[in-house]
Task: structure prediction
Amino acid sequence: MQEAMIKRAKELLTDGSVKRVIGWKRGEFAYDITPAVFESAEELDKDFVFDDFTSANVSKYLVKESKKEGKVLVFLKPCDTYSLNQLTKEHRVDRDNIYVIGIPGGPKLDIEKIKAKGITGILSVKNDNYTLKIETLYGEETMPFSEAILDKCASCKSKKHVTYDELIGEDGDVLDSDRFDMVEKLENMTAQERYDFWREQLSKCIRCNACRNVCPACTCEKCVFDNPNSGVENKAASDSFEENMFHIIRAFHVAGRCTDCGECSRVCPQNIPLHLLNRKFIKDINSLYGEYQAGADTTSRAPLTDYTADDCEASIVHERGAE
Amino acid sequence: MQVNENKEFQPLIVAFCCNWCSYAGADLSGTNRLNYPTNVKIIRVPCSCRVNPMFILRAFQRGADGVILCGCHPGDCHYTSGNYFTRRRMTLLFSMLDFLGIERDRTRVEWVSAAEGAKFAATMNEFTEAVRKLGPNRRLEDLRCRKQ
Amino acid sequence: MNNDTLIPHVGVVTDIRIDTPDVKTFRVVSPEGGKVFEHMPGQCAMLSTPGVGEAMFSITSSPTNKEFMEFSIKKCGCLTEWLHAMEVGQQITIRGPYGNAFPVDTELKGKDLLFIAGGIGLAPLRSVINYVRDKRSDYGQVQIVYGSRSKDDLVDYKEIIDEWMADPGVEVDLTIDNPQEGWDGHVGFVPNYVKELKPSTNKTVLVCGPPIMIKFTLAGLKELGFTETQVYTTMELRMKCGVGKCGRCNIGNKYVCKDGPVFRFDQLDALPDEY
Amino acid sequence: MLKISLSRLEELFAAIAEKQTLYIPSDRADGAAEFTKWEPGKALTQKLNTLRSAKDFFFPQTENIVDFKMEGKNIQVIDQRSEHEDFVIFGVRPCDARSFTILDKVFLSEPVDSFYKNRRDHGTVVTMACSRPAETCFCGTFGIDATEPEGDAACWSDGEDLFIKANNDKGQAFVDSISSLLEEGDTAKLDQVKAKTKEILSRLPLANLSTATFGGDTLNEHFNSEKWAELSESCLGCGTCTFVCPTCQCYDIKDFNTGNGIKRFRCWDSCMYSDFTKMAHGNPRTSQLERFRQRFMHKLVYFPANNNGEFGCVGCGRCLSKCPISMNIVKVMKALEVK
Result:
């Protein structure tokens, strides 16, 4: 797959139809992959990599890159294409300055899950037919592939590319995934249990803003949290209220626009399951205002910028759910 | 949250009232000599959809025990569709607060037209009682703002 | 526990003088009277109104003035806006002094001095000018070149006319950017005016003003034959702690609040051009 | 050297906790290790290092400096400081222990930061040598010997016993306070474990990362290198690397109006944030390249220049594993290295 991508990228570079290629660059180890912009065939040959660890959603870089002169080629997995559609709908990217090659999604690996098993001193990770052979300083370790899959891939919602100019490999289709199970589990808890669960999770937050800076739906020029007189501390974990407020308001600002790409939970240094907040909004919107998948198209109105005369009343929240 | 002489818990209620209907409704309940608890602090907003979720959370941060958002009945909003957006926005916000385990009955949306002075007073009385039963807001307050 | 430099003292504003439409000079004394702390010319202090903000301002009064400290503040941000709205008697918090000072007792002693200031840049230099005038015998000839956008943008205009121009040993050359009726003095930018005046090259120069003016003034001085070791300036970057710990006011490895704000130009050239 | 059997750790912790509050690294619900207050039954983690460094104990993420009461035109300054309680941090790794000496150089230099000093004087650091370093470790590059940790008192484990030795008088006081539980023991087996660890340390992938081309006087050489553009192009400008780093010392001072007074507090700040140097009339670092460059120049050039050659990094590897896009100081050093 990687060779096919490099070959195609080089062709497009040499025949001048694209100026830059956004992809992934090899790191020091097997798993520390960095998104990067390639401008020449040599760079592609030297550093370009596409394997089980290239899980970063690079669509947010297009906000900057698509405004530069000359077309940019980008490789997008199915879940990334939803983010690009959402960015296109909101006119944050110049879509015709972008050439999209759809690549197969395929579950990606999470190095934290491998390390959580006590495996350390990792030198290389080989995947031969779904068992991982991990070579470490302390000998060889093996681990089933399925146990090291990223959370966002484990509850993958679709293998369908919703926007592409070209495809490598076939297109998949929308899957019905179990992504709302954990949300339902939480909803059935009592209020005290839910409060304790979220207080324990959100109190770990160190306010590093990685979730906001990686989120393709969070592309405001100036974020409300960076505005000092918004009254929210954007870098201090000074009170439990601040943590609650930051995460409620951030989830609220992407409600109806979040494509559930799972990047926020992937990058959180404190392993907080932030995707559950966004999925709660998605589940509510689906149940109250009709099935809606952000990024599925570039024309529909986002649920929170739309209304119908017979929407339910806000008191519906008070009637349902256990106390 | 003040506790007056008869030691009964007096909740602090913040009411966002839309200028065209609910605020006039509150005014009407005043001119009709209908009384509603003094714990209710009214904040006038041009339309119910002017209320940003941050305002509601900030009210809780600063010691409010209940927040009620009053607006025009759907259909006769002065800006035609303001309250429709409010309805969706607040439904999702209240559902998220509930998801985080914060008591559901501390927040409410009520449609009160300019002619419904009685309904305004009744709603405020009933909401204050509901919040009084819940007790002080401990789950969404900022400890630094707690009155010593 | 000993007091910490981050914990401020209280200061009372006893006099507010309106110098220009956007610059006011505030006189600050300790609530019990007298100065809150001693300082050297060129040093600065952190003024603050709790809840609004805290910022570093150069102390524009000379250390030889024993009763009070003065700050000339230009309105350009939320804190300065609040300060401009103050009335006499309002208390603010003040801590300092921070930064090194102009080397008045070492390199500058006995030298002929040339002060070049632009707009609000006169504030830090005024402290040195008045210090030099009070210790006149320790210094040689003093020349002041000061320019601003327009006549009513000249800070401390009254003091310049009444005291500095009246002082025999001090030569004052004023200029404004473009002609204005009621002004018969020189018209033109400060850097060009300096080139016209052709000051003798054995003078030690103290420059302060907007960065663009400093850049062109330095170029002009080099043309006239001045070396970088003769020219001093005072920098301004965002400061929070004032003691070189909060890590934000650095140019290269030098902290403006601790190793500055006064730098000699050869020291500045050794640093990357990040300001 | 004095030792105690590993099976009696619980007893040891109980003895320590009697006199002073004890913090040990233990596993959290989500599997990561974290320093928490010891309670009976709380086990020591087997993980190599905690997710958040022990910097929190001396330089917490947020800390009240002073309170103000505003009455009309008058301000009342309320100094809230109080003597900190004595506490012991057990199981600090050698890299984190070195980070305290780096922070000391900043906060204990003139004028002394009384908040930091208050905690530092009351804290006893008991370090634990490493025996299973990870591939992201490169403490050797900065002259840290993972088998001979610094800190007030040092501990080693050879699988059966826990050996303990005091490094300074505060450490000696600590060892004396628990000497009743300790007994003399030979260190033959321990020396084997140390040798084995040293052998692994030499085989680490980043073992021969060198700091030769960096240091206090290499400023011009690196500042205008054109590699910064390529290195910083995919940086998101979040604060993760600075907030998990044990040696980052930058802080911000902010006011919070509580409705009945003003609280001035200090909180961690990150040079990667866009408002780090933002002033009313401008911002000298507007692009992410400048901010990115500042972070690594500070650790590799500016800090050594101001502290006679000591680097601002301890090679703990946290930024390697926590950066959302896996950009870190190792990649910067390798890119800027002059062969």
